[in-house]
Amino acid sequence: MGSEIKHLIKGDEFNQEEIHSLLTLAMAMKKDKNLHAKALAGQHIALIFEKPSLRTRFSFGAAINHLGAHVIESVSQTRKSESPKDMIRVIQGYCSAMMIRTFDNCVLEEMKSYARIPIINGLTDLFHPCQSLADLMTLKEVYGGFKNLNIAYIGDGNNVLHSLMIMATKVGINVHYCCPKSHGPKKEVLALVENKHLLKEFTQPAAAVKNCQAVYTDVWTSMGFATRDENIFKDFQVNEDLMAYASENAVFMHCMPMERGKEVSVDLPDALCSVIFQQSENRMHVQKALLLTLLTHDRVNI
Predict the structure, then answer these.
(1) pTM
(2) Where is the Aspartate/ornithine carbamoyltransferase carbamoyl-P binding domain (predicted)?
């Protein structure tokens, strides 16, 4: 990938070939727990949490430890006293890479202008690219590849949908999305999607999931957002009845945390069609591959 600094902020930083290579590496490392173990020994990775976390915190911590690097973690509102440009210039004096989970995506964009180390978006209000990598890995494990694959996203047009649209279409997946009026994806994000012909908007969830091999949803009110009238979303619950309209043996996906009985029915997450815990485990594996790829610069031999 060359010697220039590469980041993962929106999801559009990686092309199709690079995504495939990263997923292949992640799957190989999942299969062989000793593959590339301690490859980043002696390095320090910063984890900055301005939003609470379970999966991001544990998956990155486990990934970093497996690769032999050391975690330096901050759980605080650091930016109340530090500007983004000062933060990154301080942190890169100590660390080889930084993951940040925060609110405003502009913080990462400002940091990037001053960065000499890779910046990884652990989640912002606008994007969640690490989750999309885990989603793609899960789909590849389930279906063996992405050819003729259709995924439907039902619910709030949030950061998860944004990164999914960008990254899934890069590898040839058709993305159907169905959101309540005024709660769809942002126009500036739609502009980042290269293969727009693979996107299709629907007004009815049942029509959106038809012929889809995966049905995806997320919470109706994302972390840090003001409480909204969730009656707007009442017809957008993913449940057993909706799954019946999807392709036979379609899988149910959710990035978690979830609110059972709201965006998803109470029992569907535990059904045989659910791959949500496979998704959460795969966060660790794709992040191992991501860190290794970003910090070794050249393509890693599997």
Answers:
(1) 0.95
(2) 6-141
